[in-house]
Structures
1.
Amino acid sequence: MSTIPTTFNELLPSYTVVGGNERRASTGLSAVVLNRGRYSRYGFFEELEKAGFDYVLSMESAASRYDLEDLSNSFPFIRFVLLKEGVSAGEEINLAASELSSPLFFVLRSDTRILRGGGAERMAERLHVKVLDSKGETSNGNYKRLCTVPLIQNGRSETMPTIITPALVPEKNFSFKGPKNILKTIPYIAKKEGLPSLYPFDGIGIYDRDRFIRLGGFDPFIKNFYWQLMDFGFRSSLWGEEIASTQLIKLSYDGDLPKEDSTADADSLRFYLKNQAPAFHGDYAHIPFRRFPGYFKRRGELLASWEEFKEARSWVMANRYRFTSDARTIAERFTVDASGEGEENHGDAHDDAHGNVQGNVHGNAGGKEQL
């Protein structure tokens, strides 16, 4: 296992910047564009210009630079961040957060459109914490939460189930000792304001920059974006942060919906060690040694398993007082919060040939962790 970073900007990728020195507004909200596919970006950037974001950052991989010269001439306010090597979506978001100074940043995809929101200034105003004083209701300068996720619809104008809930699901094949609960994620459609979500679907959402940096951002050593999101979301909840939905902002995908790859692999093992293995006692967390046999059985290679386990124990120890609960408690809490939404809003699930729930319900790291 690669060493778990202890500071946010410890492992940022190399990059250069073209254009975008002009500040367009002072709303407190900037836009970050993660590019996907070869869609025409002129109309999309025109929308962002009209919305009035303070700054706009476009994260440019080698594949997305074919129209860069024309775009930089047409949109001088956009800061094009040219990555020198291929990186994960989470690393792009980390880099954007380090490059910006705005207190809020809205992560968007280049194949989305903003259908509802009211402009950058209105979006930012809604996220201010309001307090009552002699002058009435005013902002105290703080923002509501780590990340606010919008409604998203597909190309057929259907609202998608993008609120993600972790759940404890009984395992089908259990021993005589009784059923085991394994960790799954279930998406559903938010029907009211402020419902919690484990992570921002596809990374899309408005992030509080200070909270994001204090949390450590996305793990750069996890390359699969699904497991990056799972790690980010669980760490957020375990450390007492909030990710929740709003119905006041709505986006639409222009192209095909993104597919999440929940394959159990090295990334899922890293997720397990950082998020499912810690036990919480009183006011701190630690990874008990009794977790090691199960991890070794899942991982294989005794020496490598022990080094990874030991590294994760050290990381949890260094952050032990930042934990406010454990994975089981988080899953149970989400189940209570989502109970009023109704079964009709939940995403479908089906079993594959190996008995793992796939599609809109994803298994945990290896699919056998008892909670």
2.
Amino acid sequence: MTDNFIKRLRIITRISFLPKSGFIYKYRRHPLNNILATIITFAISLIFLRSMDFIAHRGIIDSKLSRKIIHIGTGPIFVLCWFLFQDTPSARWWAALVPLVITIQFALIGFGILKDEASVKAMSRTGDPKEILRGPLYYGIMFVVLTIVYWKDSPIGIIALMMMCGGDGIADIVGRKFNSAKLPWSQEKSIAGSIAVFVGGFVMSAVIIFLYVNAGVFAGSITNYLLPITVMALIGTIIESFPYKDVDNITMTIASALVGYLFF
């Protein structure tokens, strides 16, 4: 039954993302592809972010949860939008423009130059705009750097980003929900949270890499990537567990990427 499910999923992803068929093929050959792809990616990202801002501002969910939903969801949405871009040298720069502009917006809000109460409520823990200059700003910077450095040339960047999104993002939610023992070397972090970092990062990385493999972007089978993802997730989890506040978006992401060089 599991084998049949995997086969069907492969068929679906090939139909959806196959480079030389249907809408995607025609779209990718359009001379304005990268500009159109950037606009579409911007639109999708802003709709997602503004939806979370609205929900948090209205009090439908608290700011901590909205912050983590943004943290978890932004990465997969952005990386899946890469399928819209042409395979040209300039594509990575066009794609990186999206998180760059959003990160600049974060900085302007954090410094008080731009007033956006809804964004502050959605992305800060206490309602202080300056909080955005730490975790959310570092988060955006990592997106820009990894997009430019790795793009679709290597799975390293995607796995590192998914560790930051799926791993670090889920950790806080699980850590607060389940009352488990604290880590001996980091009293603010729990065993349940660290397990969530590993599982969340691994699952999200595996799903996205599976889609990229079936789209023909990365060679081989998804099974070839499971060991690298496991090791990268393990190292990322260890680094995330250290008691360094607000910089884990940088430290665990860079650590995961560096470990990737052992495999790719």
3.
Amino acid sequence: MTNDPEPSVFQEMTWEEISAAARADTPIVIPIGATEQHGRHLPVCTDWVLPERIAREAGRVRSLIVGPFLPFGYRSRPGSGGGQHFPGTVSLRATTFMSLLEDVLVELKRCGFRNIVVYNWHFENKGFVYEPAYLISGQNPELKVVVIEDAMPDFTPERQKAIWPEGFPGLALEHAAVIETSLWMYHEPSVVRSDRMAADAPQRVVNHDVVPIDTRMSTASGSLSSPVAASAEKGRLLTEWLVERLIAVVDEEFPNHGRHTGGREVDHELHQPETTESAADLGR
């Protein structure tokens, strides 16, 4: 949402541009999310669209590729995502999720990428995103995989006051609440069903899980705390902080690939890949 250079986005690039970016060792950021209910007012694509938007904004500032997103994640839990009992939530078992991510990382390695960032948004994916990264790294020591399990920035007291002037509920209860609603209001306000926003809170808030699911640990709406105080201005601030954190990590881990000076940064010499694979093979 700026006048900065357009980011390089994997799904919008040609195979030659992708090959050139990989040969240049450009870092590629993989947004990892879920298809999960987000209250009565937000779409189920929230957990994979928002991290991709953040990665795109980061790609306007420094050299990186916004990689292919993963729209499915591990099972929703009542105290952090509302739970599996909501229609619209489509989840994977842990072994399937880890195998899927491992296959994606293998394919990116085949494309030539050696600097990869796994950028996770969905709380329940924590831990499971590390395992395939660890396995791939062990098999391919020339790869560097950075795992960001929690995309959230540091919420200092000053930032908490700016976003939650009436009190910070804690990140565990920020599902489909002020953070995500504000980000949607800033990036794409038309998707927010503002007339359906209402305060809500779980009957039980505990530091453990129960199965079968205890729905008292979730809410009727699917929002774990009130989204009513959300605003586009808060979304702008949150975007700045999220982008700042992502760029700081990428800058620290890949210091030789820095800030943009112009538009799409895939201006390296283009040529056929050294293998005999066709363009169709590269797209599989």
